[in-house]
Amino acid sequence: MKILVDVMSGDNAPLEIVKGAVLAAQEYKDHEIVIVGDENVISDVVVKNELDLGNITIKHAVSVINMEDRPLCVVREKKDSS
What we know:
- This protein has about 80 residues and is α/β, with parallel strands linked by helices.
- Helix content is about 35%, strand content about 20%.
- The protein has three helices and three strands, in the order E-H-E-H-E-H.
- The chain has a three-stranded parallel beta sheet.
- The longest helix has 13 residues, at about 15-25.
- The two termini are about 20 Å apart.
């Protein structure tokens, strides 16, 4: 099973969400985990916190959907978002 995780939104993002994805990857080794977000930000967090992504793949997303974004605008304007 492939599991995609948006790491750019949520409390203490992206650090805490990346850490959660690392724990999930260790627990569920038979599944493919893909973290989605700004690849540069994710890479910086991984290096700074000495995280081992192991078999986790990073999928770059140019933009982030915010709580204030209207759904129709998201569909039309943020097609490459996390």
